Amino acid sequence: MNAEPAEATSDNGGDHGFRLSYGYGTDRGLRRELNEDSFIASDPVFAVADGMGGHEAGEIASGLCVRTLGSAPQLATGARTASAADLHECILEADSRIRNATGARAGTTLSGVVVVEQLGLPYWLVMNIGDSRTYRLSQGQFQQVSVDHSEVQELVDAGDITAEEAATHPRRHVVTRALGTGDETEADFWLLPIEEGDRILICSDGLNGELGDDHMFRILSTVGHPQDAVDALIQAALRNGGRDNVTVVVVDAKNVLGEGAVATTAPRPVAAVEDVDTLPRPVVADAVADAAADGAAPSGGAAPSGGAAPSDRGGNGN
Ligand code: MG
């Protein structure tokens, strides 16, 4: 999906007048011969996939991944009905397609959001596998939503190194889960209410490997249009070294509750949603089955656990 036009705005025309605007871009960077990243930015799905495997195999893997998302009926243009179960199924399909195409020699990360509605209110359904990232700038707060599936994240979780040390650790490119390769292929999901003015940043590690959170926050909080923010982020990553492919998608949500909604809209059903912020691997499968059985939203609570079978990314030691 790398050949799409550089900018687009979407208005789903629903009851709320809810508006999404977004920008996207990708750059090979200054050191790599190929760009193995792929992305999709097509309402309701916005995602980045960072392929690994070298010799174009990584590009095949990441491309298959985003095309599988792009062709899923539940993610058709403007659809708002996708569930974590739908995405789980779609991700399994992508995993199988990549394995068939590359003999499990290539893999890809996947991170991003699907815009969904529940009880008439919009949510970010965040998905992640690997170490591409989804961040949210909401009400002035900038936070990484996804949790990396990486060796250094496990070291951080264990208290062995700090997040700052992880950024320069020699093993920082080793992911513990990926699609298309290895044994650990489960994604994590989070469901977050969309707040007025929310800005989502989705990126491959070529961005956050070059820019700290403060730098990303500064750009995201000062550059108005999402496409300008994307361009500024990519240029900053290149100025700081551009050692990897860098791919960025920025999505803004406006008019979330619509005109005059303050007086007429019922409170958000917070209690129903708080339970499903995190869907760790063992819970997703069960929750999916439960949801299918009784039509309820999936629920879970514990933090995602790290996986085995690390696979080395690209192997160039950056
Ligand atoms: Mg990368």
Characterization of this structure:
There is one protein chain. The protein is α+β, with helices and mostly antiparallel strands and 318 residues long. The protein has a single domain (7-297), classed as PPM-type phosphatase domain (Phosphatase 2c, domain 1), CATH 3.60.40. It contains ten helices and 14 strands. The chain has helices at 57-71, 84-102, 151-157, 163-166, 205-208, 213-222, 226-239, 261-264, 270-274, 281-294, and strands at 7-11, 19-27, 37-42, 45-52, 107-108, 110-118, 121-129, 133-138, 141-144, 174-175, 188-193, 199-203, 246-254, 311-312. A six-stranded antiparallel β-sheet has the order 1-2-13-12-8-9. Strands 3, 4, 5, 6, 7 and 11 form a six-stranded antiparallel β-sheet that branches. A two-stranded antiparallel ribbon has the order 10-14. Helix 1 packs antiparallel against helix 2 (84-102) and helix 6 (213-222) packs antiparallel against helix 7. It is globular, with a radius of gyration of 18 Å. It starts with 6 loop residues before the first strand and ends in a 6-residue tail after the last strand. The model is unreliable at 1-15, 260-267 and 269-318 (pLDDT under 50). Magnesium ion (MG) is lined by residues 50, 204-206, 244-245.
